[in-house]
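Sample entry was shown:

___
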Amino acid sequence: MIPYAGGGRTCIIACSREAKARGVKNIMMVDEARRLCRDIVLVPQKPDLYRRAHNALISEIGSVIPVDQVKSIDEVSCWLDETQRSEPTDLAQRIKNTIRYNIGATLTCSIGFAANRHLAKIASDTKKPDGLTIWYPEDVPAQLARLKLEDIPGIGRSMVKRLAAARVGDVPGLLALQPKQMRAIWRNVTGERLWYALHGYAVEAPETERNMFGHARVLPPDQRSLDDARAITRLLLVKAARRMRRSNFYASALYLWVKGFERGWGNVAPLGEVQDDMAILAALNELWERVTAVIPPMTKIMRVSVTLGELTLDTARQPDLFANDDKERQRCEALSRTMDGLNSRFGQTVVSVGPWAPPAGGNVGSKISYTRIPEAEDNW
């Protein structure tokens, strides 16, 4: 699967297990993938179809066991009652059968059972793509000891180096640490939470608060001029503003980042607690001129990102007494909400402020949902 149709200068963003068996990897250039696997079939990404498949899977899994948390587009966690804990193999087979016969035989799943969500995820990863792993509490230390540090979610390459500096080179060494030692190595409470998770405690991180709405996009190879980048940035910002309004937030800051092949440029503009397209797009126009004033005219732009930050819930917004813009603001907000309503009614962008011309391939503001599950509106 690739971001755009055709073009050797794009990359594989997700590949099948059959392709992996031939040496193809995620984030591999298409030209290299073709050299390794001459008969590879390249398919442009289709985020809306992934969202539909995700919703169908959640529905089918929920018919067997209640879904506790949706962690990503292809990962969910469930809590087991006493009956289910006594027959985990039967439960897993029922889930697999439900997916096979109600979704499709080509879609497999790996299932892990353990004392908490973190251990269950690690267990499920040990037998992909269609395995079943059951870790009873007394078996966990020995099972973890067989793994590499990089196999533990939350431990990347930089953390492996930090652990090595602390004279921890394997999982048994990690398990031998104390909670406060883990916290010191991670330099925050995440390390301590990981210690408790690896030792079987069901410790949950507190729910994070929303602090931004944004979108980023790597530009298609044939649309990397400053003018193309500006048009796509505008679409991304409108998408972010729509999401923000649906969640009943206002933004006080607009962030812009433009990246070329060798370096990037960025800046921030104050907004004054707004949510309507007119105020946000006006701020983008000024911000774009400031940022691009220092970019050489013929620069090829690889990536753009735009973010609405410093959020305030609509119930907590305090208008500026000295701005005297309340009447105009309310008119613009009412107009934005009316446009949102029309677009929602017809299931696509039928009305917008200014031009609405998504680039070839579409999917502006939507992508493969490894973490955030998009709403249907994200694909309009």
